[in-house]
Amino acid sequence: MKRRSFCYAFVIVPFLAGTILSADWKAGVAKVNITPQENMWLAGYAGRNHASEGVLLDLWAKALVLEDADGNHGVLITADLLEFPKQLSDRIRQQLNDKLGWDKAQIILNASHTHSGPVVLHSALSDMYLPFNTQEKEKIDRYGHQLEQRIVDMVVEASQSLEPVTLAAANGIARVQVNRRNNAEGRLTSLTELKGPNDYAVPVLKVTDASGQIKAIAFGYACHPTVLDIYLWSGDYPGFAQAELEKWYPGTTALFFQGAGADMNPLPRRSIPLARQYGITLAAAVDRTLQENMKALPATLKTAYKEVALPLDTPYSEDHLAEIAQNGPNHLKRYAQRFLDQIQNGETLMRSYPYPVQAWNIGGWPLFTLGGELTLGYAIELKQKYGEDTFVLGFTNDVMGYIPTLTILKEGGYEGATSQLEYGLPGLWAPEIESVIYEATDELANQTGIVPRAETN
To answer: Exposed/middle/buried for 303, CB within 10 Å: 0-12, 13-18, 19+?
Structure first.
C-alpha cells in the first residue's frame, strides 16, 4: 500500500486542478448487505436442484446519490442480483417517489446479473427452476419484501449524507469477455483467434470528496457473471472486483453496473480461482483508469425515461405450444401450458412489452440504460452515434428477456429465439425491435442534451 499512497501524492493536485468545474456536485453513498439469512434457491441456472449451501462472498446493494449545482438529483442503485423484475422495480421507485419526490428518470436500478444470487420475487424466470414447495415460496416472498425495504432505506440514507464532491469519468479496458455466440466454449483452449464483436471498455465514474479522498467508484463491464454454478452465494467476478477495490481504497464504496453483456461470457470458467482472477483483472483495469487522466464533469445532471411498447412477432401456434407442453423440458412445459390455458380461456396472448429506456447526461457525459438481457450490438451502435466514451447499461429497471439485435434475431439461437419461452414471452421479438429502441434513445438523448457525435464534429 505504500506504493499506492506515494503515487497519489503526485497525481492528486493536477486532478483537483482539472476538476474545478465539478466542485458544485454533492454525493451521498450507502450500502446494505442483502445476503439471504436462510438457505434459498439460487437464480440463473435451470440445472440446480436444491437450495443454497453457504456464502462465498456476501451480496450487496449499493447506492450513489448525485445532486448537481441546481439541486437536480439522480441515484444509481446496483445490486448483486440476477435481476430487478418489473414489479419489484416499480415498487422501489414508487416508494422513492413517495419519500423523496424522485421520478423514474432519476432512478437507475441495475443488477449485476450474478447467477449466484437468490431467486427474486416476481421473476419472469420463476418457471425455469424446479417447482417450489410452499416453504421455498415463502422464503422467496419473505426475502423479496425485505429486499425492497432495505434498498429503499439505503437510498434514503444516502440522500441524507450528501457532501461536496468532484466527479470525473473515463473508460478503461479489460479483455475478460468472450463472444459466446461466435466462439465454442468447449474448443476455447485450442483456438488461436477469438471472433467478435466485442467491447472491452471498463466505464469508470470517480467521486472524490473535498479532502481529495475517493468516496465512490462506479464501474461497469459487459459480460455475464457466470463463472460459478455452485451453491454458494456470491457476486461472481463482479463481486470479487468490488471487494478488491474496496480493499485497495479503504473507505471507498465500489459499485458495479452490468453493461450490454448478454451474449458475452467469461471464458474459461467454472472455478472459484477463475472468478477471483477475472475480478482482480477488472479491478486492476479500474485502478489504472483512476490513476490516469479522467475527464472532469461539470455539475449538471439531466435525466429522462420512457417505456416503449416493444413489439412481439406472431405468437407461437397452439400446436407448437402443445408439442412443448407434452415433450419439452420441464420448465418450458410450464410456460407452454400457461399459454395454452390462456388460449383455451379465450384470452389474447401478449403482443408487446413495456420496455424501459433511460438517459442521463452527467456533466456532458452520456449514459443510457436499457432493460432486459441486452446484447452487445446495442452498446456498439450507441457508441458509434454518441461517442466511444458513452456508458451503456443493460439489465436495468426490468429484465423481461433477451434483447437481441436484428442480426441475432435473424440468426436465432439462444439469445435470438429459444430463450423467449424461458422468460414467459409467447413469441419472438418483432423485426422492428432495433428501430423502436433507437427511436426512444434518440428521443431521450434530445431531451437531456446528449448530442450525436456527427453534430459535434
So the answer is: buried
d(CA 236, CA 218): 17
Q: At what angle do helices 433-448 and 376-386 cross, to 10 degrees?
A: 40
Identify the DSSP state of 37: S
DSSP 187-210: GGGG-SS-------EEEEEEEEET
For residues 391-418, give the mean pLDDT.
97
Task: Please provide residue 394's backbone torsions phi and psi, each rounded to the nearest 5 degrees.
Answer: -105, -170
Residues 6+ positions from 196 with CB-CB distance below 8 Å: 179, 182
Grid coordinates representing 340 are 395454452
Mean pLDDT, range 201-222, rounded to an integer = 98
Q: Cβ contacts of residue 455 below 8 Å, gap of 6+?
A: none
Q: What is the helix, strand, coil percentage profile of the chain, to 5?
A: 40, 25, 35
In a 10 Å sphere around its CB, with 0-12 CB exposed, 13-18 middle and 19+ buried, how is residue 285 labelled? buried
User: pLDDT tens-digit profile of 217-251?
Assistant: 999 999 999 999 999 999 999 999 999 999 999 99
For the beta carbon of residue 235, count every other beta carbon within 10 angstroms: 28
Contact 421, 336 (CB under 8 A): yes
Contact 368, 346 (CB under 8 A): no
104-117 pLDDT per residue, tens: 999 999 999 999 99
Instruction: Quote the CA–CA distance of 429 and 9 in Å, as a whole number.
Output: 54
Q: What does the longest C-alpha to C-alpha distance in the chain come to?
A: 72
Cell matching residue 318? 397452439
Q: How many CB atoms lie within 10 A of CB 32?
A: 17
Q: What is the pLDDT of residues 26-37, one digit of tens each?
A: 999 999 999 999
171, three cell numbers:
473508460
Write out pLDDT tens, residues 337-395. 999 999 999 999 999 999 999 999 999 999 999 999 999 999 999 999 999 999 999 99
Other CB atoms within 10 Å distance of the CB of residue 339? 25
Pairwise CA distance, residues 65 & 411, whole Å:
41
The residues pairing with 402 across neighbouring beta strands, listed in sequence order, are 373
